[in-house]
Amino acid sequence: MSKNSKAVVSFIVGAAVGVAVGYFLNSDAKDDMVSKLRYEADKLKEKFRRKKEQFEDAVENELT
């Protein structure tokens, strides 16, 4: 594949992705997906916080 054809394919793929993102950002599904992502992010933060506390407790118990 030549450089010109790669550039054309890249441009077309980029344009398609841009159109898809633009459509998504203007749709009603955006709000639903954002709230789901926030919920999952909060769950992961809480899980990480608990694991961090467990690790800190384990290290503290080993040092005493």
TrEMBL record:
Keywords: Coiled coil, Membrane, Transmembrane, Transmembrane helix
Coiled-coil stretches: 34-61
Residue ranges crossing the lipid bilayer per the database entry: 7-25
Record's protein name: YtxH domain-containing protein
Species: Chitinophaga caeni
